[in-house]
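Annotated sample (chain length 468).
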Amino acid sequence: MDLNLDWIGDEDTRQLIERYQNAYIAGLQPFFDVDEFESIIDFYLDGNKTEEAKVAIGLAMEQHPSSSVFTIRHARYLGGIKKYYEALEILNNIELIEMANVDVLMSKAEIYSLMNKHEMAIEEYKKAVDYAEDKEEVLSNIAFEYENIGDYDNAIKYLKIAIDNNPESENMLHELSFFYEITGREEQAVEYFNHFVDKQPYSKLAWFNLGVFYNSLELYEKAIEAYEFVIAIDEDFSSAYFNIGNSYSGLKYFRKAIKYYKETFEHEEEDALTHTYIGESYENLEEYENALIHYNTALNIDINSPEAWVGLARLAISDKDSARAINYYKRALDISPHNEDVAYDLAIVYMSDSRFDEAMEQFNKIIDQDENYIDAWINLSVCFTAGNKYEKAIEVMEKALESNADSASLWYRLAAYLYKNGKVQQAYYYIEVAMKMDFVSHVELLDYMPELASESRFNDLIYTYKNS
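Output written by the structure step:
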């Protein structure tokens, strides 16, 4: 048994577990009442310490043979070691006698969940709601089971019910916000949190989440207003200052953004990410010396900050020092090897130096990770056209379209390469395909081949599809 219990936050629990473990190691069997044994066993079960739980359950059943709570814990233990059907048989037998036993229903639901029978888990949790004292826990478990089967409508519904039962539950507000975010329901989130703060105007977390979703909708002024309510409630809420900085940055008010980023340091320790954002703001103001100071400060705090290395790379590019930029991008990729955007930026620097083989290597790595990264496909093809290898560029576009047939940009670019390779009739066929798909994007084709603007055939297509 692990006697190092300093990590346990609750002092009463820590002392109880320490007393139990000391007695067990000494070979003693001191008396623990039912509630104490429940706490001891649940501590081990919740921590996935199944052997320790088994021992504690055995001792508890010896001292309290008539108590069904330890039979239920035994069933939970069996579930933990994947003896699901034995566990369910025990619980079903208890349920025949104690139909309203919340522990039985919750334990059955837990075991069904472990078996990936999430609909059956939901059924048991729903039975438990009427009898549970802590309805929040049961309702949240229902929500998480719906999440497991991808039913976010019901997951959100039950989190809302849980919050209605306990509007002060910060955990439930966090979870609801998370569900709204991962399902892209920003407008619904704004509506919900606006109604929530009408009823709970001093909920700083609700105001904060409202600001987050306004910001994601690029409604920056409204986001700032929501964050200011957070600060009015709790002036030490550092994340609100940071997010106001982000909102001002979205509005391109970079000096105000810097002011609020720096304000976070009045309420928490300085960190690398905030210094990086300050550096980016100075960079946008073209105050490169100040930007350099903050990127370096970020790296002094955390040498493994990929964002700060990328910031230094951009400054090197502005100094037309591609060798230094490449070195910094490589440092960022060493830290964050799957960061597609950093790999893309590095590839672009290679292209600007006419180092096409190295650029193609990066673009291929990106495509291997994400076949829908359109710009990587297009620039990979550009590397071939630099050597007038239009057949190769056409092959790249055809390969890209296998997984991105809905991308007008790829069809326009394929048409351009066909045209330059002398296949004009085929090129115009694909130009028309692309215009039917997305007329506005034809400007991308003109950017690449401005000479088309003087062709009557091309202008006829523009007239036809513009008016259609």
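Annotation: The first helix runs from residue 11 to 25.
Annotation: The radius of gyration is 31 Å.
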